[in-house]
């Protein structure tokens, strides 16, 4: 298995060397263009903060699996971004994207992969996350090509999905659920996923970092003149889902759930994605409220029932944060975007669902062949120095005379 | 009460729908202008990082109230920003602000509200934070209108307050103290506010995020050519207060206090606000040193005495971080800004103090009617899933008489 | 000692007052230039996030020394940035840098100082960190002058080091090791440096913040048109080192080490520094892989042996994260940068190594005169309110039956 990975790394290196051509079409002389690209670069950095600190810490809510979640985040980002560059240089269209656009598209792929990984978090060996990334990127790129670039001529019109409600969020979530469907074992199903005060706070940190930089995610590739409007729409949608999540959480559970607050608050960002540059403030705020209610209902009501019924575990509840709000965002575009091509939009959603489900199921089967963890949801199995918890007891005990 | 909130949300939605007109005056064709607005957008994102991650985690120093502090932060931001947009569309002046300027002004209001909430942190039910926001925003906007936009003709000249020492920091702190004056109970006064190693670290995280992005807060609405100078002034002021805080903390307490380091280090940013674009590096650094000394003296010496004397609790010590340094910044402008209108500046400060105190007291009375928490400063009362930690169970058990 | 520091602060203030002239050459009228400077400002903020949140939390891996590490970070940044401004105003060249370039150069100095401090972390009193900063900045500026600005005519050609592999990373690390060589005591050598689950997570937070903003560090002073390319190179190098670190860590240790993941993942950023604007994606990725392997080998294999052999402690392992990868980056430039002046590059590296070692050793002797801590690696000695620790003892004790 290691040789296999090394081979892939080697191939990666060779292909990356090919990639050098990516720089050819660049070097803008006109300064306004250069400054515009630097502003895109800046939003690309914001997205990177979401990928590592945001998604990474959001997944630290599994209290004994925090270091693994963060390490997996590092690996998933580091495998998917170079792979997307390789893909871009292999299948460069007639008018290749600039290097900064390619970076942002690669980050979108990484975001979708991290969403996908949330569904099976804690139940794969570390190497399997890498393989998941290697399997995911081509499937993601296939769907991107089919839905956004007219691949195979499946969709004749323009699909409205600027911030990726459909092709990033819904695709990642459904792919992840399909992988989980192939992989959940009885032991995993029966092992409780524990969180505590501290893991909740880390999770809220990740959540807030995602909230803060979400406008840059949605506005990443938008023209300069549309960036402020897009940013405000995303912020108002997030405000809407945050308020709605609080009310729905208290209503549905009787008390506030930290998990709802960390997750469903973000549903507005997911759902506004498709129409982030087309909505007006009022509709953005209302889309956010709707998404927050749907997402919180998912976490508070559907998750438990669906898990019991299906005997499958969706560790982070990606169906409720990314899947349903993503589909909602794609459908809502029909009412918000004027002059939208209804047929194209609906076909785009359907193609995404089918592609994600099929490629996800197949990927899950492939990953299942590589074996599985003995003990789910704990760092101890793969991390060094796992005397950790015991460690502290020892250390304190040994120091009692000093203290 | 819930119906009441729902009604307000509904009104919010309707008004937001009205807000659509905000986009009308936009769509700049000239690219230099568009790029300038994107740069403002970028600073708006920096401010958002301060609001959520910065203020949010700074308040996690109350160790058993961390999740509540973060949730309250989410709600306060999410209620104040849409409300400010509603206000803007209702009372649009002849020359309405661009959407990105409105966003930044809304974030300023949210910052002031978070400062205010710091004074009563841990002593309100979660819904009361929302009401606090609903009461605060109009009062804040009133003061903004009176002091900066010549409302009622109270102030004839220009008040120097680019980064909001007066109208953001001092206003928020005094409003918060006035609310606290209406609300502190004997039990709250007698319950110690506990912090520990971990809550200190979260608090330092929030502090550092505030420090890092503070220059963008002060330079948010500054012309492009003045941004670098403003940024450097703010950074030097923060360096000054950080050094001064360390020396003052050791001098006044004998040991270093993590609370001083997390809070008073930021006083330079508060105090330089008024003159951030007018000072020179030397004066900025010295303003920072002065503010750091004043703030640390407040935390180390005044806070204990004032609490005992007044029997009122200022949970986060906002008087010492935002109140005194904010007023200091407003007064210091008299010496730093050349050609300043002394009368206008002093009147502006006085109007702010009076408006904040009066509207804060009234708001406090209104909030007090809504009842209060049984157990102050603990998440357990309102949060789900408290089984998480044995620790917590133990702690709660020990507190049963109170709960 | 305090009087001494106060004197220095006073001098600092006076000099800063002199600094006002820095603003003279500014106020660009041409808006494209102003916008370019604002974009630099923006990268300067990114670097500030690295300095405080990144370096600060990376050093929190020492579990009982977290608050001290963060406070030291605050002080080191706050002393070095003003000092660098003072230096700049005292030794202004014929064509002085703009204020934003000066800020970025000052941040580079602060970064190098934080690297240096990592070598002796936990073994100096808080005041000594300040003195370390006061001693370090002139030495750093001397080397900067010798290597990059042709000081003394030592180096006749251009040294390729855009992102500071040599003059920032290697210089800081070697200076720090030299200080450590003068300072490590037997007790320090014999005291284990403990980390735990939580301190690992804080460390990973710092690591991720560094990773995210590293492209802005390398591209800080690069021309707008080269920023996207530079950013992509840095990101690909970091992806390379992250993947390599994982494989090397598992290979060399059998299990994953959280310390490797937090540190060696960043080695790609260190090593790509010299050639960040010259490499192509393929070479950037490969430089990252190489650096990740070298760095992980350093942490996993060399560190233990070298510590035992030398009886000197390098607390954060700066030799393996910054020293070796920095030198690697400087040497690799010989193969990557076309038309490079080989003599100048090698001389530049050598001058840096010698200057750092000599000035570091002398600084270490000076600092050693100021005495040392009684108990290394604990907050308790200098921090107020140390009841926190007892708390932990209680909690753990109560849990012993469970564990």
From TrEMBL, chains A, B, C:
<feature type="transmembrane region" description="Helical">
    <location>
        <begin position="346"/>
        <end position="368"/>
    </location>
</feature>
<dbReference type="GO" id="GO:0005886">
    <property type="term" value="C:plasma membrane"/>
</dbReference>
<protein>
    <submittedName>
        <fullName>Ammonium transporter</fullName>
    </submittedName>
</protein>
<feature type="transmembrane region" description="Helical">
    <location>
        <begin position="204"/>
        <end position="225"/>
    </location>
</feature>
<dbReference type="InterPro" id="IPR002229">
    <property type="entry name" value="RhesusRHD"/>
</dbReference>
<keyword id="KW-1133">Transmembrane helix</keyword>
<feature type="transmembrane region" description="Helical">
    <location>
        <begin position="44"/>
        <end position="62"/>
    </location>
</feature>
<feature type="domain" description="Ammonium transporter AmtB-like">
    <location>
        <begin position="40"/>
        <end position="383"/>
    </location>
</feature>
<feature type="transmembrane region" description="Helical">
    <location>
        <begin position="318"/>
        <end position="340"/>
    </location>
</feature>
<dbReference type="Pfam" id="PF00909">
    <property type="entry name" value="Ammonium_transp"/>
</dbReference>
<keyword id="KW-0472">Membrane</keyword>
<dbReference type="GO" id="GO:0097272">
    <property type="term" value="P:ammonium homeostasis"/>
</dbReference>
<feature type="transmembrane region" description="Helical">
    <location>
        <begin position="286"/>
        <end position="306"/>
    </location>
</feature>
<keyword id="KW-0732">Signal</keyword>
<feature type="transmembrane region" description="Helical">
    <location>
        <begin position="129"/>
        <end position="146"/>
    </location>
</feature>
<feature type="transmembrane region" description="Helical">
    <location>
        <begin position="166"/>
        <end position="183"/>
    </location>
</feature>
<feature type="signal peptide">
    <location>
        <begin position="1"/>
        <end position="24"/>
    </location>
</feature>
<dbReference type="InterPro" id="IPR029020">
    <property type="entry name" value="Ammonium/urea_transptr"/>
</dbReference>
<keyword id="KW-0812">Transmembrane</keyword>
<feature type="transmembrane region" description="Helical">
    <location>
        <begin position="69"/>
        <end position="86"/>
    </location>
</feature>
<dbReference type="GO" id="GO:0008519">
    <property type="term" value="F:ammonium channel activity"/>
</dbReference>
<dbReference type="InterPro" id="IPR024041">
    <property type="entry name" value="NH4_transpt_AmtB-like_dom"/>
</dbReference>
<feature type="transmembrane region" description="Helical">
    <location>
        <begin position="98"/>
        <end position="122"/>
    </location>
</feature>
């Amino acid at each position: 298995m290691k040789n296999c990975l090394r081979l892939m790394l080697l191939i990666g290196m060779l292909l990356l060397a090919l990639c050098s051509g990516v720089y050819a079409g660049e070097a803008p002389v006109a300064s306004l263009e250069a400054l515009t690209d630097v502003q895109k670069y800046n939003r690309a950095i914001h997205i990177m903060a979401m990928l590592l600190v945001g998604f990474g810490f959001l997944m630290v809510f599994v209290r004994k699996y925090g270091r693994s979640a963060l390490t997996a985040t590092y690996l998933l980002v580091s495998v998917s971004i170079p792979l997307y560059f390789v893909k871009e240089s292999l299948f460069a269209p007639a008018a290749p994207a600039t290097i900064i656009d390619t970076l942002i598209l690669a980050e979108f792929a990484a975001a979708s992969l991290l969403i996908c990984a949330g569904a099976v978090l804690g139940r794969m060996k570390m190497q399997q996350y890498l393989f998941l990334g290697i399997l995911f990127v081509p499937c993601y790129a296939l769907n991107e090509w089919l839905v956004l670039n007219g691949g195979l001529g499946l969709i004749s019109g323009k699909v409205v999905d600027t911030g990726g409600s459909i092709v990033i969020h819904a695709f990642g979530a459904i792919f992840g659920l399909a992988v989980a469907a192939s992989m959940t074992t009885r032991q995993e199903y029966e092992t409780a996923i524990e969180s505590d005060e501290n893991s909740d706070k880390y999770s809220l940190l990740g959540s807030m970092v995602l909230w803060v930089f979400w406008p840059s995610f949605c506005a990443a590739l938008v023209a300069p003149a549309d960036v402020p409007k897009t940013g405000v729409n995303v912020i108002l949608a997030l405000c809407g889902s945050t308020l709605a999540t609080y009310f729905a959480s208290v209503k549905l559970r009787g008390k506030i759930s930290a998990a709802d607050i960390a997750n469903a608050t973000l549903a507005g960002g997911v759902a506004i994605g498709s129409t982030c540059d087309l909505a007006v403030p009022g509709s953005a705020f209302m889309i956010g409220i709707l998404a927050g209610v749907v997402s919180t209902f998912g976490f508070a009501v559907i998750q438990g029932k669906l898990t019991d019924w299906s005997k499958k575990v969706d560790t982070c509840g990606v169906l409720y944060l990314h899947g349903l709000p993503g589909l909602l965002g794609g459908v809502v575009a029909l009412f918000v975007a004027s002059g939208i091509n209804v047929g194209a939009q609906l076909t785009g959603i359907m193609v995404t669902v089918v592609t994600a489900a099929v490629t996800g199921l197949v990927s899950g089967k492939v990953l299942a062949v590589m074996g599985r963890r003995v003990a789910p949801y704990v760092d101890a199995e793969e991390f060094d120095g796992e005397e950790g918890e015991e460690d502290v007891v020892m250390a304190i005990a040994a120091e009692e005379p000093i203290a």
